[in-house]
Specification:
The complex is a heterodimer.
Chain A lengths: L13 E9 L2 E6 L3 E5 L4 E2 L8 E7 L2 E7 H4 L12 E7 L2 E7 L1 E9 L3 E2 L13 E7 L2 E6 L1 H4 L2 H10 L6 H5 L1
Parallel strand pairs in A: 2-12, 6-8
Antiparallel strand pairs in A: 1-2, 1-9, 3-7, 4-5, 5-6, 7-8, 10-11, 11-12
Chain B lengths: L2 H7 L7 H27 L4 H20 L3 H19 L6 H23 L7 H9 L25 E2 L17 H4 L23 E9 L6 H13 L2 E7 L13 E8 L3 H8 L4 E6 L27 H32 L1 H25 L4 H53 L1 E3 L1 H18 L3 E6 L4 E3 H22 L3 H6 L6 E10 L2 E8 L6 H10 L5 H6 L2 H5 L23 H10 L3 E7 L3 E9 L4 E8 L4 E5 L3 E5 L6 E4 L2 E6 L2 E7 H4 L14 E7 L2 E7 L1 E9 L13 E6 L5 E5 L1 H18 L1
Classes of the chains: A mainly beta, B alpha+beta.
Amino acid sequence: MESVRPADIKQAASAQFVGFEIAGQKYLFRIERIQEIITPGSVTRVPDVPAYVVGVSNLRGTIIPVIDLRLLFGLQARESNADTRTIVVNVGNRTMGCMVDAVSQVIRIPVDQIHSTPDTVVADRQRSVEGFARAGDDLFILLDADSLLDPTGLAGIHRAGVPGVTPSDKAS
Amino acid sequence: MADTSRRNQDLPADDMAEFVSVYIDETGEQCEQLVQLLLALESEPRDARRIAEAFRLIHSIKGSAAMLGLDRITGLAHHLESHFERLRSGSLLLDGPTIEAALRCIDYFRACNDRLRQGEKLEPVDDLLEVVKKLGQATPPVLPTAPPTSAALPTAQTTSVVPSAPPTPPALPKAPPTSAVQAVPTVTPAPPVPPPTPAVPAANERIRRIRIQFTPGLPMADLKAELVLARLAGLGVVVESTPASAEFATTSDLRTLDIVLRTAATGSAITIAADVDGVVGVELDVAPPAEPAAAPAPTESGAVAETMRVGVERLDVLLNLVGELVVSRARFVQLVADMAPLFRKAAVGGRSGGTTHSLREAVESIIRSASGPVDRAAAACESQLEKLEEQGRLWEEGHRRYAELVESVDHLTRVADSLQRGVLSTRMVPVGPLLNRFKRSVRDIANELGKSVTLELAGEKTELDKRMIDELGDPLVHLVRNAIDHGIEPADVRLRRGKPEMATVRLAASHRGNSVIISISDDGGGIDVERIRDRAVARGLVSADQAATLSPRELIDFIWQPGFSTAAQVSNISGRGVGMDIVRTRIEALSGSIEIDSTLGVGSTFIIRLPLTLAIARCMLFRLEQAAVAVPVENVRELVTVTDDCILSIGGRRVCDIRGEFLPLVEMDEVFAWPSTAGEPAPRGAVLVIHSGSRAVAVGVSTLLGTQDLVVKSLDENFMRIRGIGGASILGDGEVCLLLDASAVVDIVMRSRSATEVHA
């Protein structure tokens, strides 16, 4: 946090984020989208869904889907450990759980420190990447929860049958 | 279209928006009552009480509309009201055109309601207004010499439709206008004293319901009752008395007398008149007794059971919370059950008590036999023993508390159960209004088709979840239309077949266990299975050879196929795109099923079976390797153990022989595609016969967990719809279990059979 001098932090021009980690990469969700962060409870598997949908879980009487962001990003699955968390995210009027390797911190970042996606980065989930931000030594990828977890988008990937980045997407 | 004129003419100002929704609700109900009244009046046009009630309703609609500045409605209601005013005073007789016009007005009021809901401009109504204005001008006053109805407007007998039937019973004598009051259907004969006052209701007259209580065991109670009746008759007209005066002498221990009096007298005058020797209480304006189903809404003076409007969404929230409570209760019950072995007194308490005791004996014997050096060790043992005894006492305390906990959980269970039932019952409404709506539809459809149809209703008091009632309307309308259009033969055919010309359509509702059954029967021609056979072959659904082997039941099932119709020609009533397949889909969306029972030449019955409520389902629970799965018990026909020699494998698909019936068999794991299934599938423990309507499949399951009431939760609210899974529920330990949608599972199994065929 040393690079961010107090003078740079203007209340009106900064935003709060929840930082989390998947496979060593740090990501951010806007804090307004986060309902809560929980340790993963029991998850019931559901048939006929893509692999990244771990299943459904009981969040105080409401049934929410739990999505493994590792699998959504096309990475290898990993056993849960003490650091594994489920971030409960509100997308539209739906509530969903996102399993991540670890949740690091709540960070306030000045708006002018957030950079838009460079044109050179072309990936399947580019539309879900809102930008990049540097805080201290860490580089965060700011994710747009709405488009990342958009149910129609998820259903589309489901139909394609291949989670994550597909070769055709890379080629385009 | 200037916006301002819209506002001024038809739309209430913004701050009135709140009143609009109240208006819509109120007029909706009033229109409903009005339709029932009009239909009843159609066969009894002299029923003064119903005319007065109809007048009151129209007046009330006019008033509410005027308050909101809905001029078109006000104008129309005003002219209709004026006409009913004349009917009420007896200067005109209610005729067919009036009923027709009034029904059209109601249609307009309802259409207005729909438009108000959408915030749209109201439609002009000038044509209808002219019709209403002309009412009565063309009609001869009082008694018409000729039937006022033309063939285009047949009248009905309560719920029946008789084209070209005379509007009034010919036996009715020519009566002066004052007969209107006496024509009120009285239970009793005329009052003992002839009414001295003119029977034409004066403006300040009211209907008073009076309850008179006599001293228990009063001697000559019958004479006292006669006396009261005579005295009250001096104040007005006794419309009704319960018991009737003829029954006074035969009624043993006459304690209460209910009198309906039409009078202008004040309450105190009535009380004084009724308070004779032996009377212990006079109660004014008591609630009217429950009226028969066809009776109109309570009269203006009758008190109505107190009700209030509550938004359905509030009830939904409440139901959800109760669902939570039920789940958490289940959790408590399970915890208590889990704790039971820890606190079982004989097992644990006894053993620890015994251990402490024998330890103490051992220590004491050591102390007795030894001396000096063991003292310290013995003292240490002693103090440890004391601690142990203290533990024992704590355990005792714990056991006592545990017993209290068990009791509290029992209590919680009882309260939660009653609360659940209570909240569920707030959503339960009688099917009566839904069925009553068909009186009008049947009348209209039968008129349109020129058929004579009586509608019989049964079980109107049967209650069903409000949401289901709302969703049932369309499917029922379709089935009723279908019955009249396709089911009922033309009059000449009926006569030739020796049937009464007047056909009967019967709508009946009843409870059966945890289900509600709604049946739609007609005494028409029944379903011609041979015609279905031809149609099915003609449409290429089956080959002619296959068709020849199909049973009547299998053939009848074809009518659920999209676009399948056996009607010789498509009329403008049936065959308008809403097929029977839609009816079935709608019913199945409500977790219900529909079956047909038909006999050629005798008639058809469609039987709809629905769960009592959509919120809670009694289910059979299974554990699969991947998840706990529940099937509603209504869809479980049986649970059987099947030996391997009862399973046949035919061309890659398996069939299971259950007492001579061959059903397709799959394992529960195979019904769905599960992500990354590992390991050997668990051995089949039993075979579950799941059915939906008349179709059944056998599904192998490994571990049966038991039967449980589950609160049905939506899976697609936060997630998505998965074919074959109707929802989810939360078990006692917080685990989510998946609720199967039986009809979709049956489809999947049937389809997978054909898929296997392709792969094989």
